[in-house]
Amino acid sequence: MTTHRDAKGRPLVAVTGLGIVTSLGQGKDTNWQALTAGKSGIHRIERFPTEGLKTSIGGTVDFLFDGPFTAPQLSEKLATLAAEEAVGQSGIGAAGDFPGELFMAVPPVEMEWPQKQEMAQAIEGEVDYDGLLRAAATGKFRPMHELFVFGGVADHIADRFGTKGSPISLSTACSSGATAIQMGVEAIRRGDTQAALCIGTDGSIHAEALIRFSLLSALSTQNDPPEGAAKPFSKNRDGFVMGEGAGALVLEDYDHALARGATILGIVAGCGERGDGFHRTRSSPDGKPAILAMQDALADAGLTPDDVDYINAHGTSTPENDKMEAMSCAAVFGERMASLPISSNKSMIGHTLTAAGAVEAVISFLTIASGTIPPTINYANPDPAIAIDVVPNAARKAKVRTVLSNSFGFGGQNTCLVLTAPPEAA
């Protein structure tokens, strides 16, 4: 049997299934129609009171529950729907028997303040670490723990789809979704598994999250109109808008996919990851870690900057990130940055945080398949310090075979993916 290997002799990692849910709706078709139409999913938050908050808008997913729910419950529901779509398209793992491992990016926040207060009030003695251990030993908080802790989401998804081995929950801030894909790629390349279900999910918009990010001066306060707040690379950008969603990808050893007659949607050709110890939230001002992550991803793929047709930007709409990303891309791509398309999905769906890398990877593969680049909307006030082609306001037809998808997270966690068309499309 012919073996399909990359330039380094490793198994090619094929994508055979894609799934997505965002504030624009459920499924690839719904999201793609909205994205290419330049539609925004950002709106006023109605899930909880926002009086007194500086930010009252977000890309909340409000169509999945009729009554109250927790952030982990929403994150699990989003992940389930995205995975169902991806696994269904792939045609693998019928009847809850997925023949590979699960890598899942989940939010880092464990419980919201009302639950923390309830636990603290029930603790006998000092409300300290020892007190928490004593309370946990009673078992009385087990139902709360199972309901509110994100770590259980991967366990439930593993049970639902019958993935093999221990499910991996990970959280690398805003690069988490891309990290989940990277871990799946590495497992297949090592020969640990022939298939991987990689998911990024985040349903954690709540008052505490808004307050935390507001205290970091990270969120846009341009609440009116909501759909105009996220404006990546614009001169008047003032922060990101929180979003919710999930992206799921089925990855396979290329030969394993061919042997079962699967349709190959694309290839995850390269991954690059660099840590940045500059600051807990700010990026290194020289952009070095981001530059190295992009260069590493291209080298891992055996490609050069000239091979890239489009950059799916991290593009959060914060003053610092957008400047750093544009500068870093210019360092990697040189004079090409004047004409190389680079657009931000976050202008329409907001920043889906731990889900972003996976959501944007799905969108990148849809871009390759359709030959249409989604726009950066709300681009009416260009920043003269950022001279790049942001695909402003309207989608663009283009031949796209290779995408660099960037994810740069708090804590200096930078992950970049090189995503390509399947070899047959060459």
TrEMBL record:
This protein's GO cellular component annotations are: cytosol
Quote the Gene3D superfamilies the UniProt record gives. Answer: 3.40.47.10
Question: Can you give the residue ranges of the Ketosynthase family 3 (KS3) domain?
Answer: 10-421
Which keywords does UniProt give here? Acyltransferase, Transferase
Q: Name one GO molecular function term.
A: 3-oxoacyl-[acyl-carrier-protein] synthase activity
Q: What is its EC number?
A: 2.3.1.41
What's a GO biological-process term for it?
fatty acid biosynthetic process
Top-level taxonomic group: Bacteria
Any one Pfam family here would be ketoacyl-synt
Spell out the InterPro entries in the cross-references. Beta-ketoacyl_synthase (IPR000794), Ketoacyl_synth_AS (IPR018201), Ketoacyl_synth_C (IPR014031), Ketoacyl_synth_N (IPR014030), PKS_Beta-ketoAc_synthase_dom (IPR020841), Thiolase-like (IPR016039)
Entries under SUPFAM superfamilies matching the protein: Thiolase-like
Pathway linked to the protein: Lipid metabolism; fatty acid biosynthesis
Q: Which PROSITE patterns match?
A: KS3_1, KS3_2
Please give the family membership noted in the entry. Belongs to the thiolase-like superfamily. Beta-ketoacyl-ACP synthases family.
Instruction: Supply the name of the protein.
Output: 3-oxoacyl-ACP synthase
Q: Which organism is it from?
A: Bosea thiooxidans
